[in-house]
Amino acid sequence: MSVTVTAFYKFVAISDPPALRERLLDLARAEEITGTILVAPEGINGTVAGSDGGIRNLLANLRSDPRFADLVSKESYVDAPPFGRLKVRLKREIVTLRRPEADPTKQVGTYVKPEDWNALIADPDVLVLDTRNAYEVAIGTFKDAVDPETRTFGEFPEFVAANLDPEKHTRVAMFCTGGIRCEKASAYLLSQGFPEVYHLEGGILKYLETVPPEESLWRGECFVFDERVALEHGVTPGSHVMCRACGAPVAADEEERHSAQCPKMHAAAR
């Protein structure tokens, strides 16, 4: 039986995070949904899986709340549940940056639809910036995109301070997995005086779903934070697996060689 996976987020003021958490926990349990939902004063962020009916009920319930009436979700389908259990957690931020000036409820960059993305990033005057972490970039990114080589998203402001200049980099186009990190990243760049900031609407996943492979400027696969590990065009599972020792995504045909060299695996064996 096919399993429906949905990813969603919404930046909006939440005055009652604990109450919202309990409501979502009860509903997800009733629908036998697994995955993770984060609830914070700045909004919600979730990737969950379940029956198609259960997922539809969860989304309908959320959209019945005026705060989430325009909630956008992205669905994909797999043969087996990609999550082992359900987690609904309270957090300080749904995307950790620790920079209050990066507030997507006040300002964000210009959204660019997937079908318009190629033309934008082909412009030589546009700096194309991957806002994801190094291990994600390593298995796939857009052609000629800048890799900030961050270990966590919290390091992004340091990268900006050391490498970008609002007077020189006047047009910046950024992207991330599903769009949520770019909301904060674009808000941060705008707060630092960058005049034109764009971000890929719906993220890489929407691009892979929308743009035909023969027209694509994407190279490789897109890392996702679940047991599917990575996705390719059509939002279908790719060829990567997860190293159980170090947690790094590894190409399936490289798994044996990686296992032989992984220091954490050898440390655990001692």
UniProtKB/TrEMBL annotation:
InterPro entries to which the protein is assigned, alphabetical: Rhodanese-like_dom, Rhodanese-like_dom_sf, TrhO, TRHO_N
Gene3D superfamilies per the UniProt record, alphabetical: 3.30.70.100, Rhodanese-like domain
UniProt keyword annotation of Ribosomal protein present: no
Pfam families cross-referenced by the UniProt entry: Rhodanese (PF00581), UPF0176_N (PF17773)
Domain of life: Bacteria
Annotated Rhodanese domain residues: 122-216
Molecular function via GO: oxidoreductase activity, acting on paired donors, with incorporation or reduction of molecular oxygen
Top-rank EC class of the record's enzyme: oxidoreductase
EC number: 1.14.-.-
Key words of the record: Oxidoreductase, tRNA processing
Any one GO BP annotation for this protein: tRNA modification
Catalysis performed (reactions): uridine(34) in tRNA + AH2 + O2 = 5-hydroxyuridine(34) in tRNA + A + H2O
Function according to Swiss-Prot or TrEMBL: Catalyzes oxygen-dependent 5-hydroxyuridine (ho5U) modification at position 34 in tRNAs.
PANTHER family: RHODANESE-LIKE DOMAIN-CONTAINING PROTEIN 7-RELATED (PTHR43268:SF3), THIOSULFATE SULFURTRANSFERASE/RHODANESE-LIKE DOMAIN-CONTAINING PROTEIN 2 (PTHR43268)
Family from the record: Belongs to the TrhO family.
Protein name: tRNA uridine(34) hydroxylase
Organism: Hyphomicrobium nitrativorans NL23
Gene that produces this protein: trhO
